[in-house]
Amino acid sequence: MEILVCIKQVPGTTEVEVDEKTGVLKRSGIDSKMNPYDLYALETALRIKDENKAKLSVISMGPPQAKEVIREAYMMGVAEGALLSDSKFAGADVLATSFTISQGVKKMGMPDLIVCGKQTTDGDTAQVGPELAEFLNIPHVTNVIKLVEVKEDCIVVDMDLPNTVQTVEIEFPCLITVEKGIFEPRLPSFKLKMETKDKEIPVFRLKDFRDKDEKKYGLNGSPTQVLKIFPPEAKADSEMWTGSGDELADKLFDKLVEGKFV
Q: Is 117 within the bounds of a domain?
């Protein structure tokens, strides 16, 4: 059995500047970390690997420094990893990102199971996983909150729906996106860090893909265009009120009326 986890390097702070012309985050020169949701995907895959003697790999897309999250995955027990990095991939929306990753998956070889985090903290769209599955033409299940059983030809999971929890059996090859909290992510191993510090991380560029049409990647392949994006203004205005419960309730109601909230 072969498992692939999609991971991403995201800004480690909310103080990130935005290019007003392209609407793209300025990532250079800021602290970065692995997307928190991807840690849950990694832990899910690691547990499946340990119980089924599977081969586990990761794939990431980003600038050269994104190799750091792959090295972090190595420290947790991942066997192989690859980075998709090319200036032609820059500025991709969710569609172009999903297509690029699908090409990377095909380059690495189709696994039995792809595991993704629910979403990323720098985009919060929760669309890349399902779109990746569509590009690969494989079934997928989102919002997975429990791993029920792994069989020879399928996986059984519980998925969180708005008003219920549904148990789903999905045949391999397939993709799942997992919710935060499905398992407690493990910490990186110092022993594995030393063992894998010199481990090679292959880098795939556009020239390495089957589909080399530049119009499908980066800003060129992104049908959604940002008209305007800007960081929210930080406001620290506050009022302190004193009085009885009835007096405070009246003040709060008057404030809501004044702000036209009611």
A: yes
In a domain, 132, yes or no: yes
Residue stretches of the chain with pLDDT short of 50:
none
- Which pTM value belongs to this model? 0.80
Number of domains in the chain: 1
SS3 letters across 4-54: EEEECEEECCCCCCECCCCCCECCCCCCEEECHHHHHHHHHHHHHHHHHCC
Measured CA to CA, the distance from residue 33 to residue 12 in angstroms comes to 5
Considering the domain boundaries, does residue 239 fall inside one?
no
Strands (E), 70-162: 80-84, 113-117, 140-150, 154-160
Rounded-to-integer distance, Cα 242 and Cα 251, Å: 10
Alpha carbons 229 and 199: distance in angstroms, whole number: 39
In this structure, what are the phi and psi dihedrals at residue 247, rounded to the nearest 5 degrees?
-65, -40
